[in-house]
Specification:
The chain is of the alpha+beta class. 42% of the residues lie in helices and 20% in strands. The chain starts with a helix and ends with a helix.
Amino acid sequence: MDVAALAKPRGSTGDAAANQVYDFAMTSFIEHIVKLTDHRDRDLLELTLSKALIDLLPIGRIVIAHVMREDGVERWLEVARLDAKGGGRVIDPQRVDFQSLVKLEDASDRLRCLQTRERVEIVWAGPEGPRINMLPLFSDSRTDDRGVLELHSDMALSSEDLRLVDYMCRIYRNMYTLLEYSDRDALTGLLNRKSLENAFYSAVLEDLDGSAPAGQRAAPRAPDDRRHRVPANYWLGSACVDDFAQISNQHGHAVAEDVLQLVARIMSNTFRTYDLLYHFGAEDFGVLMHCPDEALVLSAFDRFRGNVEKFNFPHVGRLTVSCGYTSVTADDSPVTALEKTQLAVNFVRRGGGNKTSSHLGLVRRGFLPSTAIANAQAQASS
């Protein structure tokens, strides 16, 4: 689509066919802007941007690749791939084999685009032949949510086409920033409590009437319209800073806030890029993760706990955290799953803190009642 044409005023006695083309182009352009600005889910913005560019530009394929990190290693994950002729896929970052992904340095053109934050054009078969235009998803130097947008075309894109890409990317970035602001905790930069419900349902729950293929996202539904089953290996965990009230009382509010910010930074550096990290308020943090083995979940929380324990916090010195986690079941909501993790955390804190416990493990050993027993006791006492 010619961006300049969109900006041209209609002549009062202009050609009718040209005016019809103008009307169609302008309507299509505006419709895509409306769709892009209508979302309240950051994950869906990229898909909407891709569909808009496929419709508006002479390109055959769009690929969106994100940078994922695990244990200090960074790799590329193609979270979305759409073809102009139909078809494509959207991948759930929490349900991929990280080791199978391409290392960051092995895709040098993408890496150059990411590092320079400028457009990179890859051309073959002559100056007018097929090519890939790579653009950074974001123009700032953020350390998270890094990614590259790839436009595959059979010929060179015009300056008007590239201007349209720039316009749409600006709208995308503005919307992403607004949604990010509403989803994030202002103090720590982690996700906030409000954002947990949408992430919990969209990432964890699958519809019985047609779940998405492995690794691919299913379309989200309203909370009151969910008939679901839960794919295996989703976990919710909580972590609480031990003796936080004492830290605040002894050192003051400003130092206590610094502690929370540093704990959040340690958490971000410990867990994987695609684990969802939360600050629920005060000393309470959370993690929503997909992991094939409970032993790996325990190891991740113990690694985080150990990293906090060995860190020297300014004005405070050493401190510890207590952690608890639970597997997510078909009967769980964000509230009930969090209640289980909090029971595990409370058990740890009663024993002195600085440990990690599994809710199910405590139930099996008789330290906590099962959910069914606890519900029956609650009903009997009400």
